[in-house]
Structures are given as structure tokens and as C-alpha cells.
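Input C-alpha cells:
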């Protein structure tokens, strides 16, 4: 049992809580740190359309110092999506800028890049 728990923890550290495969398998619930739990809950809240809770949780995750840069990038990306959707273009641009600062190769998926609210803002940073 201890070996299985250790394996799950290792999987979380390697792939990050923001990875869809980790969330889909329910492994994100095994996160030990508050930052990673808040990230996972924030992404779930975003997917459920609860943007107020999502924003609070993602900001909490960032403030609690997420372990992996990929998780930080994901938090900033989802914050940017919500900010652009609420016509907060400057905040949206700043969130995308922070994501790209952490990962200069950060790109949106084709579906995300084509979104009318945040696609143009993201493209303007390139």
C-alpha cells in the first residue's frame, strides 16, 4: 500500500496537477500541498463555470507557491481566460505574459487560440 501511495505521489510530481490525465484519473486529489489542491479545485471550478471560485482558488494556488512551473503556467492561463471573458484585457494580457515568462514556449491549443475573447490578446504578445 505504501508503494502505491508513493507511486501516485511521484506521478503527481512528474506530471503536475494541471495535467488533464492526472485530473481525469482523480490523482490530483492525492496532492499533499495546499497550492496543488487549490490549483486542481480552481481548474475544476473553471470547467464547471464557477469563475468566482476558480479565480479565488487559482490566485490562492499561486500565492501558496506551486511547486512546478507548468502548474504556475496553467494557473495563469486559466486566470487569463476568465479575465478576457470579462473584458479585463489588461489583466488578461498580464496573466498571459506571466505564463510566457515562466515558459517562453507556452502556446495555446488550436481550439484555445481561436477563441474570440482571448485568442487575439494572446497573439498580440507574440
Amino acid at each position: 500500500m505504501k508503494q502505491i501511495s508513493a507511486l501516485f505521489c511521484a506521478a503527481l510530481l512528474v506530471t503536475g496537477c494541471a495535467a488533464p490525465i492526472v485530473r481525469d484519473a482523480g490523482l490530483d486529489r492525492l496532492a499533499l500541498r495546499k497550492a496543488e489542491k487549490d490549483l486542481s479545485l480552481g481548474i475544476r471550478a473553471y470547467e464547471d463555470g464557477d469563475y468566482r471560485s476558480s479565480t479565488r482558488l487559482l490566485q490562492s494556488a499561486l500565492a501558496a507557491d506551486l511547486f512546478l512551473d507548468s502548474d504556475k503556467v496553467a494557473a495563469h492561463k486559466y486566470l487569463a481566460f476568465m479575465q478576457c471573458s470579462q473584458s479585463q484585457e489588461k489583466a488578461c494580457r498580464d496573466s498571459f505574459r506571466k505564463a510566457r515568462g515562466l515558459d517562453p514556449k507556452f502556446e495555446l491549443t488550436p481550439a484555445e487560440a481561436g477563441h474570440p475573447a482571448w485568442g487575439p490578446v494572446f497573439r498580440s504578445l507574440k
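Residues 5-15 have pLDDT under 50 and may be disordered. The helical segments are 2-15, 20-24, 34-47, 51-63, 69-85, 89-102, 110-113, 119-125.
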